[in-house]
Amino acid sequence: MKEIQLVRDGVPDGPVVEPSSQEVTEAIRQMDGEERSQVALFVDDHHSLTIGGGPNGFVCCVIIEKSAKVLLARTRPPVDEEEWVEVVSGQPDEYPVSEVVQISAVIQAAEHFLKTGALHPELLWANEL
């Protein structure tokens, strides 16, 4: 059973069971990085996608079985030049700029995950460290 969980002020709202693509997209668009800063989509106990952030940038992590993948921006600076930015995902944290993406990328990732339970093949993913 698929379920979407919205988080407001760090507290989960009630889940939406079997959400439509439109409901998932709307939940992501409502993310403001303050009051609403996290959306989680659960396909089952072993498949989930979590998005954190707001209009200034988003982070996205997918867990499939026991493997965690993070969505990456298309351009990735060398590791020794990596900048870090603060993104609120439930609570403020710092992420490498290469892991902070635009809303269009997280919507693509979430819609594909909702339909297939898999990573979007046209987006750039990396193993979470």
How does this structure look, described?
- The protein is an alpha+beta fold and 129 residues long.
- It has one domain (3-127).
- It is 18% helix and 44% strand.
- It is built from 2 helices and 10 strands.
- Strands 1, 2, 3, 4, 5, 6, 7 and 10 form an 8-stranded antiparallel β-sheet that branches. Strands 8-9 form a two-stranded antiparallel ribbon.
- The mean pLDDT is 83.
Form type: globular
| Approximate helicity band | 10-25%
Strand composition percent: 35-45%
β-strand number: 10
The profile of the biggest β sheet is:
8 strands, antiparallel
Number of domains: 1
Cα Rg: 14 Å
Estimated structural class: alpha+beta
Return the average pLDDT rounded to an integer.
Answer: 83
Number of helices: 2
Topology pattern, helix = H, strand = E = EEEHEEEEEEHE
Low-confidence stretches: none
Distance between the termini: 29 Å
List the helices and strands and how they pair.
Elements: E1 3-8, E2 11-12, E3 16-17, H1 21-29, E4 36-44, E5 47-54, E6 57-64, E7 67-72, E8 84-89, E9 91-96, H2 103-116, E10 124-127
Helix pairs in contact: 1-2
Summary, kept brief:
The chain has helices at 21-29, 103-116; strands at 3-8, 11-12, 16-17, 36-44, 47-54, 57-64, 67-72, 84-89, 91-96, 124-127. The protein is α+β, with helices and mostly antiparallel strands. The protein has one domain (3-127).
